[in-house]
Design goal:
This protein has 159 residues and is mainly beta. The chain has one domain (2-158): Porin (Beta Barrel). It contains one helix and nine strands; from the N terminus they run H-E-E-E-E-E-E-E-E-E.
Length: 159
């Protein structure tokens, strides 16, 4: 019980200290002027890790995601390419849709290609204007006809 009270107190203190930092950026659009960003993007069912995003303008971007693991004779991973389209651009939260394909690879043969579409929410922080965190939800269809739910999250640093 005592640990729960201490943990709750710490969360409340951190939140109370962070809330003025969130409030100060309400007048300006924190995602204005973004172009190239690098970070991590992970998703289910396909995975992912290293991600790079490039915003051509305030509404259209491309993203590449890669994850690889193993040794020279025993490897696997994925390569993904996506297009992002921003639907709503508010001062601290942006809503977008993303669509693309994921190409799994392994030393053992060919895996089916996965096509996905998702809606995303990107949160921007006044205390770290170059940092953005996103959450995505959508669907995936494999080249073999299997349908799956897609979930993802990521964090990117924009230069």
């Amino acid at each position: 019980m005592r640990r729960s009270v201490v943990a709750l107190t710490i969360v409340l203190v951190v939140f109370s200290l962070a809330s003025p930092a969130f409030a100060q950026g309400q007048d300006e659009n924190l995602s204005d002027g973004r172009s190239f960003g690098i970070g991590m993007q992970v998703g289910l069912p396909v995975g992912g890790l290293v991600s790079a995003r490039y915003w051509f303008n305030p509404t259209v971007a491309v993203e590449g995601i890669i994850f690889a693991w193993g040794e020279a004779s025993d490897y696997f991973g994925i390569v993904s390419g996506r297009i992002l389209y921003k639907l709503s651009d508010t001062p601290t939260v942006d809503f977008y849709i993303a669509s693309g394909a994921t190409f799994p690879f392994s030393a053992y043969g060919h895996d089916p290609v996965l096509f996905s579409a998702a809606g995303g929410i990107e949160f921007n922080f006044a205390f770290a204007k170059n940092l953005a965190w996103n959450v995505e939800f959508g669907g995936t269809m494999s080249s073999t006809g299997n349908l799956m739910m897609a979930l993802g999250t990521g964090i990117h640093f924009y230069f």
